[in-house]
Amino acid sequence: MTTTTTTAREQAPPGRGGRPGGKAPATRRRVLLPARLRRAGLPYLLLLPALLLELLVHLVPMVIGIVMSFKELTQLTIGNWDAAPWKALGNYRVTVDLDAPVGAALLHSFLVTCAFSVLAVGLCWLIGTAAAIFLQDNFRGRGLLRALFLTPYALPIYAAVITWAFMFQRDNGLVNHVLHDQLHLTDGRPFWLLGDNSFVALLVVAVWKTWPFAFLVVTAALQSIPKDLYEAAALDGAGLVRQIRRITLPSLRPVNQVLVLVLFLWTFNDFNTPYVLFGKAAPEAADLLSLHIYQSSFVTWNFGTGSAMSVLLLLFLLVVTAGYLLATSRGRKHADG
Amino acid sequence: MRILRAATVTATVTALAAAASGCGGGTSPGGGGSNDSPKTLTYWASNQGPNVEADKKILGPELKKFERRTGIKVKLEVIPWPDLLNRILAATTSGQGPDVLNIGNTWSASLQATGALLPWDKRNLDEIGGRDRFVAPALGATGAAGKDPAAVPLYSLTYALYYNKQMFKEAGISEPPATWDELVADGKKISKDGTWGLGAEGGQLTNNIHQAFALGKQHGADFFDAAGKPTFTSDGAVAAVKQYVDFMAKDQIIAPGNAEYGQNQSLRDFAKGRTAMVLWQAAATTFAADGMKPDDWGVVPVPVPSGTPGTGRQINSMLAGINIAVFKNTHNLDGARKFVKFMTSDAEQKLLNKTYGSVPPVKAAQQDPAFNRQDTKVLRETLTRSAAPLPQVADEAQFETSVGTAIKDLFADAAAGHPVTTESVRARLTKAEQQMAK
């Protein structure tokens, strides 16, 4: 992309008649198109291939997904899906009918996902930021610690999560061995992958897997805070806590804004963690939306309903993202003003 | 320069447009096969060996043999199980798929409903030697009743009861159980001091379904009626599910921890001598991999109420297996049929089933002594005598998910010490049945 833009800019002067010999054709073209429009149109023309690709790669699948949500798409019609019968809002009606089992299960799954996302994002951010701040000052072994902290992020998801799945096993898992056999914290051996505890297990794995990203981003952002700010604050007698509250956190604000949003979107959409941890059917307490949608569409060959749920999920995430960006950027303008 | 750029843009746009229109749209409903490319075939094999590489090594020489005989080159792709159904569905929607493919036999009716597979009518079947070459139960798992089969049986498997000889001897049991009452009694004798009678995979939906299905047959219950409507809450179905979960809840011969097993941990427990019995299909290689010698375990048919497996209420196993199918849009219809004929020939059936530890669904191939060892003999006899295919209905996948999850939840209840009653079983199955409603 960069090369095309540069070439275009280099070529532009002759077109405007900078070169003596090029004057005649330039004038002729000027008759056909007003100069301003021509100049304004050029960037769009150059962007066109990228735009088309973007349409193809991003928008077309989304539009097809939306179209699918209005169809009755099961194994009977999948072979010729453009001829599948239209169902109008039928799929959506099933999905949002809270008295019927499908809608009620979806609402339950939605609430679980909300609680899970808020907790996971909060913990990831907190642990990541704390670790980044503690590792800001230079000391021996800092590099080693940083590398160590990043390991969960670098591990392949399947390998990491399946290890947790074995650690959470009731009879011969490491977690129960430590909690029950060594520390005697629990009465019996609790199940971690069944029942209500599964929510905790899922949260632990998700935070463990994602917090290094928060750590990485905050570490990078901390490098750009000028050292003299801290020196001046120290001269004025501000302690560590005050420095963090008055200098570090306000400086991190723009980074945090993006970080929290990205973490939220990832966590809310997370499919791999619950899938590897629980298999096709998650316990009710840990029934995240993406797995729920997978189960109600792919596993049961009911693609129309699944698409309708996905579209609802997309709408919800769009609303949250837009609201979040609106709220945070207005707040920042205030702070700046 | 400028002209060149314009040309590039135009070319790109045209290519994109072509690609876009190529992606859209499904297959035409009447689209049959052709013989446009008679010299090549693409074959999607399921992963039957320890890994994909092993499968390539096993199948490679056979495909070469086929090429020497017919001049048709077979492009082999071995597809791992988690991807196989996704790939088939993608091929179905786009119409761009392999010529020949393996499918799990429980998918037969669902895939048949998509219309993507070549129906094996009498003419097609005659070309590979006719219906009678195959054992009847295996042919029953090739599509909905009353329709032409959507696939042909390739490898077959059934369940058997594996038991630990040493643990039985120590508990003073001379004969392995033939009825469920005996199994429970034996299990209770063994279940003490950290060892348990029976192993189970409570978190594995398909395994739950397989066990509940066979027990359901013994209670005279099918999970679907003749019209294909779910009947999960019939008295027989409830009793079957309760009987299975009660091995943990009431009889206490299954360790509570098995409720969360889903990665074949129960086989490892068996190999390590922590449980004395498991119900499994062809587990010999897994036991060997976990360090258990073939002499240490015995194998008998899965118990039935009367003690003698047979048909009807004495059915003691679901019929598991792999079918081979031809994609309707193939460009080499004759070659595809020839390839299926080759794969189901006596010689290939003997060789491949021997290698994979399965039982040939082809009668003549079963005569080989390899299918007369202590374990394969039981599997083979069960296949011909007392196995039945899972319901061949288009909603089979939903059934596995919804009822499999219900049993998983019931095991979780039992493991947590909550009572499992007829009412609680019925409530879970009612919920499962509601999920099936369109």
TrEMBL record, chain A:
Subcellular localization: Cell membrane
Primary location: membrane
Gene3D superfamilies: MetI-like (1.10.3720.10)
Stretches assigned to the ABC transmembrane type-1 domain: 110-324
Record membrane topology: Multi-pass membrane protein
Location of region: Disordered: 1-25
Family annotation (PANTHER family): ABC TRANSPORTER PERMEASE PROTEIN, INNER MEMBRANE ABC TRANSPORTER PERMEASE PROTEIN YCJO
UniProt-listed InterPro entries: ABC_transporter_permease, MetI-like, MetI-like_sf
Biased composition (Low complexity): 1-14
GO-annotated cellular components: plasma membrane
Keywords, ordered alphabetically: Cell membrane, Membrane, Transmembrane, Transmembrane helix, Transport
Keyword Secreted included in the entry's annotation: no
Biological process per Gene Ontology, one example term: transmembrane transport
Family: Belongs to the binding-protein-dependent transport system permease family.
Protein name, entry field: Sugar ABC transporter permease
A Pfam cross-reference name: BPD_transp_1
Membrane-spanning parts: 44-70, 110-135, 147-167, 199-222, 251-268, 307-327
UniProtKB/TrEMBL annotation, chain B:
Residues annotated as transmembrane: none
Taxonomic placement: Bacteria, Bacillati, Actinomycetota, Actinomycetes, Kitasatosporales
CDD domains documented for this protein: PBP2_TMBP_like (cd13585)
Alphabetized UniProt keyword annotations: Signal
Organism: Streptomyces inhibens
Signal peptide range: 1-17
Superkingdom of origin: Bacteria
Protein name, per record: Sugar ABC transporter substrate-binding protein
InterPro entries, per database record: Bact_solute-bd_prot1 (IPR050490), SBP (IPR006059)
Entry keyword annotation includes Signal: yes
